[in-house]
Write a structure and sequence with these properties.
Blueprint lengths: L3 H9 L5 H17 L21 H10 L16 H16 L3 H19 L4 E5 L5 H17 L6 H17 L22 E3 L2 E5 L5 H12 L3 E6 L4 H10 L7 E4 H12 L4 H22 L7 E5 L1
Parallel strand pairs: 1-6, 3-4, 4-5
Antiparallel strand pairs: 2-3
Helix pairs in contact: 2-4, 2-5, 6-10, 7-10, 7-11, 10-11
Length: 307
């Protein structure tokens, strides 16, 4: 069986994310169970708003049939609205190919191989280059994350990394480990006061500061809390401008993630080369531990590189 056409469809639609991999698995399994042609509407929930089988339990059942117990996606890709259009295109693709039952099983095995590749994806790298500043090292890491995100439509890689790097740093400097949450349940889409809360401090982490987070900061201030907003370097002016518009410009602190991390790598490392390396190693170990406990995508992990 020539799988080239399927590979082309996969590449053209950038189906390497966990949500799209879930989609490929459940639609293919539905085709195996019901045969072709598939009717797209039969895959939808009663309100036609989601793909009914695109959930964690069904995805994990398919993976378990191949001896895979790792969680691919907590939501199975169900919350990604872009998956509706992609699912329809994939159904049309399968119907056009008119695969036999045995061929569909080969197609499903091919998707399983893509899942295995996803789980084996190489981590991002924090390059400890003695010739460059610590901020430059953090910025280069984030640029790599941005590039990966641009190749994975609909993903929020940079935001997830920011949130968990902040959590990792806090775990190094606070006597009690802060509570960490998966990026899918960040404070921007929940009822929590912020991403991290301790004493009277509320920390918000975002790559795109907007009115929603400013309203959260206003509520924090009204509750007697001190909000801190951490974002990427180029969005600091945006955050500061919005804070002024909301009348809280002099009441919240805005930091860029590069400075937020680099300053502590120096301080906790006692401004010594060996100390910086040891602190960076501890930071990344704490970050990777958070990824293991809160996320399902191992490619979000970071390794230490030297030059």
């Amino acid at each position: 069986m020539d799988i080239t056409i399927l590979k082309n469809f996969f590449n053209e639609n950038k189906m390497g994310t966990k949500g799209t991999l879930c989609l490929g698995l459940v639609v293919t399994r539905e085709a195996i169970d019901k045969g072709l042609p598939l009717v797209f509407d039969s895959l939808l929930t009663d309100n036609k708003g989601q793909i009914s089988l695109l959930g964690k339990a069904h995805v994990q059942k398919i993976l378990s049939d191949y001896g895979i117990n790792r969680v691919l996606a907590e939501e199975g890709g169900r919350t990604n609205r872009g998956n509706m259009g992609l699912a329809k295109r994939y159904v049309e693709f399968l119907n056009q190919q008119q695969y036999s039952q045995s061929q569909l099983k080969t197609v499903e095995s091919w998707w399983i191989d893509r899942v295995k590749e996803f789980f084996a994806a190489k981590p991002l790298v924090l390059k400890m280059d003695a010739a460059k500043s610590m901020r430059a090292a953090v910025r280069e890491l984030l640029l790599s994350a941005e590039k990966r995100q641009s190749n994975n439509k609909g993903s929020t890689i940079v935001g997830t990394i920011l949130q968990h790097l902040v959590g990792a740093k806090l775990s190094l400097i606070l006597p009690a480990t802060p509570e960490n949450h998966g990026a899918a349940v960040s404070d921007a889409v929940s009822d929590r006061d912020g991403d991290f809360v301790f004493e009277d401090i509320v920390i918000h982490v975002t790559t795109s500061p907007g009115e929603a987070v400013m309203r959260k900061c206003q509520r924090n201030l009204g509750d007697g809390k001190r909000p801190i907003l951490i974002t990427i370097y180029k969005k600091v002016p945006v955050a500061e401008g919005l804070a002024e518009d909301f009348g809280i410009g002099d009441r919240i602190d805005v930091f860029d993630i590069e400075q937020f991390l680099a300053s502590n790598l120096y301080e906790l490392g006692l401004f010594a080369p060996v100390g910086r390396k040891e602190t960076a190693t501890k930071l990344i170990a704490a970050y990777n531990s958070i990824i293991d406990s809160c996320e399902t995508d191992p490619s979000l992990k970071i390794s230490i590189g030297e030059k």
